[in-house]
Amino acid sequence: MGYKTMVGLEIHCELLTKSKIFCGCTTEFGGQPNTHCCPTCAGLPGELPRLNKGVVEYAAKACLALNCEIANSSSMERKSYYYADLPKGYQLSQLFVPLGARGYLDIQANGQDKRIRIRRIHMEEDVGKLVHDQSHDGSLVDYNRSGVPLIEIVTEPDISSAQEAEAFLTKLKAILQYIGVSDCKMEEGSLRCDVNITVKDTQTGKATKITEVKNLNSFKAVYKAIEYEEARHRKILEEGRLSTKQTRRWNDDLGKTTMMRTKGESQDYRFFSDASVLSVEIDDEEIQRIKASLPEMPDAKYKRFIEEYGLPEYDAGVLTGSKDLSEFFEDCAKIYGDAKTVSNWVMGDLLRLIKEKDVEIRDIKITPQQLASLLEYMDKGTISGAMAKKVFEEMFESGKDPGVIIKERGMVQISDEGKLREIIEEVIAQNPKSVEDYKGGKKKALGFLVGQTMKATKGSANPQLVNKLLKELLQS
Ligand SMILES: [Zn+2]
Cα angle at 279 between 275 and 280, to 5 degrees? Predict the structure, then answer.
């Protein structure tokens, strides 16, 4: 009884170099159609591609961060096919010797550690984009993207569930962002993922033919597509039907995959070397130099956050899941001192607002210095915890210093005993029933009276002081 799911991922990832892989055109996203291109991008006859050294360096960084061996000598080949977004009729890619191979990434899924092997990482150029515009007959072509550098990361079929695929992609994205080689924005297409899946009946040893799923534009879509295909493949095995090798497309609206084409045999791309592109040579010294330039990786930072700041594993995991978040936390913890309090605010209010307002961490207005300063206002008793939450929201919106907001809103916590005593005496006078309850031994009544006092002061009373004074006054 049992099925084994085997999933391999092919991930295309745009590199963040300023210029394209074979010319000086900008790689910037967007822009008017066909303004970021030149004859080399379009592959016009007579144009010679010149390999961008920065692309090799970025690709090598990714290879090393993903534990790959780097080939001292690799080359680029022509992958021949024609499509309107590829006017020169071939894409330059690395077939015979990829830049990196035999790597791995360790993940955690369903509470288990697992190593996913990476078969290869190679460099290639992106193609243009077809624009299907309703106002025109037919389609338009935008070549701005053609020649944008890509790496393709191909895993071994070691992934055995949708959860593992999600864990792999989440960690991969974090690593690529840590080393600064890609922004991994799936919505802008700078990270794209295809899924290869097959299911084996562990009893009979029979397996389905591989299905390739394309058009996955979010981690959620990858997750759902794997679940859908896993069920479809199992059904084929259960019913004893024959499967065919297929390419399918994920339809997010329908929540299912639909068939694009069957693959009788693999497409013949007629790979051959391109005499106009020199081979890529990297010696061991250069590899060591690039390796030494890598920053601290998520796993190492996770361990350090636990050791250095005494954070729980859960906190360390959330905070190091993103480079920007981990840096925000650490900058703030260094200023403020109490790391756990900072972690609570970052994981709580900060992440909540980031999610609600749908912004990137790097774009938020609030700074680590400002959060530290807010926490200090709380410690000094200038504002209460409830007030701090309100101030924080305004800081997030406007980027103003907490001191400015506190002053503007006149949000000063009432810590004046005389003034508070007057308010509490009034609360006691207005709530004789609760006072009686309290004196009769109902401790809950005290909480109600504290609440009434906080209400009367619009949340600006110092709660510890209210508690202390209430008890005193009730006993007298
Ligand atoms: Zn160009």
Answer: 150
Query: How far, in Å, is the centroid of ligand 1 from the Cα of 22?
Result: 7
Give yes or no: residues 26 and 142 share one domain.
yes
CA of 35 to the centre of ligand 1 (A): 10
Q: For 342-388, how does the pLDDT look when each residue is reduced to its tens digit (9 = 90+)?
A: 999 999 999 999 999 988 888 999 999 999 999 999 898 888 888 89
Q: Is the pTM of this model over 0.90?
A: no
Could you read off the pLDDT of 288-346 as tens digits, one per residue? 999 999 999 999 999 999 999 999 999 999 999 999 999 999 999 999 999 999 999 99
Domain count, the chain: 3
Residue 41 CA to ligand 1 centre (angstroms): 4
User: Measured in angstroms, how far is the CA atom of residue 143 from the centroid of ligand 1?
Assistant: 9
CATH number of the structural domain spanning residue 456: 1.10.10.410
**17 and 55 belong to one structural domain:** yes
Distances (CA, A) of 373 to 301, 352, 370, 395, 410: 25, 20, 5, 11, 17
Query: Which residue among 256, 286, 316 closes a domain?
Result: 286
Ligand 1 centroid, distance to 147 Cα (angstroms): 7
Amino acid at 417: E
